[in-house]
Amino acid sequence: MTARRINLRVNGQTVEAEVEVRVSLADFLRGSLGLTGTHLGCEHGVCGACTLIVDQRPVRSCLMLAVQADGSEVETVEGLGTLEALSPLQQAFSDHHALQCGFCTPGMLMTLEAYLRDHPAPTREQVREVLSGHLCRCTGYQGIVDAALQAARTRRTGA
Amino acid sequence: MKPSAFAYHDPRNSDDLMALLAKLDNAKLLAGGQSLMPMLNLRLVAPDHLIDINRIPDLAGIRLSAERVEVGAMTRQADLLASSDLASVAPVFGQALAYVGHLQTRSRGTIGGSCCHLDPAELPALCALLDAEFDVIGPNGARFVAAGDWFQGYLQSALGEREILRAIRWRPWSRGHGHGFHEYARRHGDFAVAGAAALLEFAADRSIFRAAIVLFGVEPSPVRLAQVERALLGRKLDDDALAAAAEEARSLDAMGDVHVSAAYRRHIAGVVTRRALADAGRSAEFAA
């Protein structure tokens, strides 16, 4: 009972794998699938770096076991855009200097991606509250909030 | 991977769950995992068996009737926040849930998990505020535990080792009752230095007809201000009444810790009590 076969979708691709039951979803994505865009900081749910989207909701992937994602739809930062064509959210982060070292960035992007789908026109205050679940030690957050608001505008207008 | 090795079980119905609980020693139930997973990752707990109850559908959901609100233990905090049913019968939940962790932890965190783990947090306090009953089942059958008996101390509930919490239920307050919720923490989403919630019902002459006030984060378990609640009955919610409530809150046996002293915590307890009670007065809808 220490390993299980799981079947899930990751960024639209079907994945079948055998996982040890105590492996977190974050470690599974990074170690077994090589999707190292998901970062691990504190590994106890505080820093937000490992946040990704499971069945349309932003979750801490350090606080979920890979076996618990069996049958789920998982979205990681690798599914957002490409180096040649950034997603509107990624472009907004670049435009507003919303990252320096970039360690916290994948988690922020995935939280905002999930949030903006449900809340296309958030207020500055709402964005600040949503981002309170993420720690960034470089930027001071102002550029990140600006980027989130620009991304919301871009997504609304399609520009 | 961080946790020590365990055997993993994910029963698909309550019968299989009860059979596992009866059979397995040193087992831990995994609900939303927003407290247990950190403890596993830090190896503060090392169960031989982890019983994941996320795949038992009938443990989740909000059921309303005229006499009862019943919330399944595995109802996610995000679903509580999104429920218009819950907002209509207990609007204090909407106010409180904004302070429960963060968007990302509310996606998975559950009300039952919060009430069994028992950090000094918001949702257990609301159960105390509402005089909720805890619907528990174990090898010796089902039982209901009153809120007054549920809270046994810091991280200590009345749940037995081989029991599970199925649901939390309470009699709803009248429509239009007043509600207030305030807490102070150093950072949004942290555990409160102190928090307070209050419910009020008023008679036609605007005297107080029913009152409940709870403090959390101050003592190891949520505390009802029963004396103040009784003293409020039949009188108006004036400055004297607010001052008396704050005074009672400041007299609690507050915890001191690495963040704040007991004296500071008592001060904040008074402030949040006054604000929660004043908001409850303001938000009540009066019969014309």
CATH topology of the largest domain in chain B: Enolase-like, domain 1
* Average predicted confidence as pLDDT of chain B: 96
Helical region count of chain B? 12
Structural class of chain A: alpha+beta
CATH class of the largest domain in chain A: Alpha Beta
Q: Helical amount among residues of chain A, as a percent range? A: 25-40%
| Strand order across the largest sheet of chain A | 2-1-5-3-4
Q: Tell me, what's the shape of chain A?
A: globular
**Helix proportion range of chain B:** 25-40%
How much is the average pLDDT of chain A?
Answer: 96
**Proportion of residues in extended strands of chain B:** 15-25%
For the CA atoms, what is the radius of gyration of chain A?
Answer: 16 Å
User: What is the oligomeric state here?
Assistant: heterodimer
Write up what this structure looks like:
The complex is a heterodimer of chains A (159) and B (288). Chain A has five helices and five strands, in the order ββαβββαααα. With 159 residues, chain A is of the alpha+beta class. Chain A has two domains: 3-79, Roll (Ubiquitin-like (UB roll)); 88-157, DNA polymerase, domain 1 (Orthogonal Bundle), CATH 1.10.150. In chain A, helix 4 (124-131) packs across helix 5. The N and C termini of chain A lie far apart (51 Å). Chain B is α+β, with helices and mostly antiparallel strands and 288 residues long. Chain B is built from twelve helices and 14 strands. Chain B has a five-stranded antiparallel beta sheet with strand order 4-5-10-6-7. A four-stranded antiparallel beta sheet of chain B has the order 11-12-13-14. Chain B has a three-stranded parallel beta sheet with strand order 1-3-2, with helices on one face. In chain B, helix 10 runs antiparallel to helix 11 and helix 11 (239-250) packs antiparallel against helix 12 (262-283). The longest helix of chain B is centred in the C-terminal third of the chain and has 22 residues, at 262-283. The A-B interface holds A 1-2, 4, 20-24, 27, 43-45, 48, 51, 54, 57-60, 62-65, 67-68, 111, 115, 129-130, 132-133 and B 1-10, 33-34, 37-38, 40-42, 50, 52, 54, 78, 98, 101-105, 107-108, 187-189.
